[in-house]
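Fold this complex.
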Amino acid sequence: MTLEEKPARKDHIDELFTRLDELQKSANVNAVFGQPVQVEGKTVIPIATVRYGFGLGFGDQEDPSSEVNSGGGGGAGAIAKPLGLAEITPESTRVETVVDEQRVIRAGMLLGAWSVFWIANALIRILGQSRRGECCGKCE
Amino acid sequence: MSLIQHRIVQGEPICVGQKEVVPEAQVTSWLQRRATIGTDHSLGWGAGMVSIQPTALVERGPMGARRIPIRDETTRMLAGLAAGAVFVWFLAEVAVRLATNRGGEK
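Structure:
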């Protein structure tokens, strides 16, 4: 049986692919730049980074009694992180970025532990080597 | 079909005084999709990921145009710390090698 003989199935696949394309193409600037807000004569625009993922699937099976069993599903997830603010005045435009201090502190603590581990490891190897190098005079 | 796309997108200009500011972002997307049509069954699935990263504000005014980059300071700091971690490991290995070679010469 060819694809042309299965119009319903072909339609399902076309619809699935169209939806996937729409999800991919729906990404635009408005997702990361917020609506401009007027604050004390300045135009302020919130800025963020956005990541999202999605998955869709379907399947159908025709059993011997010519009954068609079908099912489908999908899921999606998104992460948005604030990046900063843009301040626009008639005289100047500047971007104030924000730092995720908690993440940086956690990474700094991890780096500290990593450094202590490798320095201790190096000292143990160096001192162990120098002790093995000391001769008691009985071994020869 | 698997496809990774990079594209730069610009938003609507924001007019402030005599100048206009155009937001700009980079969109990176990946899409994977498959379909199977058999005599008594059909199967289709697809998955994708999209990352939208603001890159700059383009300012256009009577004085000309200029690009104000938007940097992700958190990511830069984390990259710096990761580079520091590799450097500490490298330094420790070099110290051990030097000490071992010196010990061997004695």
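The two ends of chain A are 87 Å apart (CA to CA).
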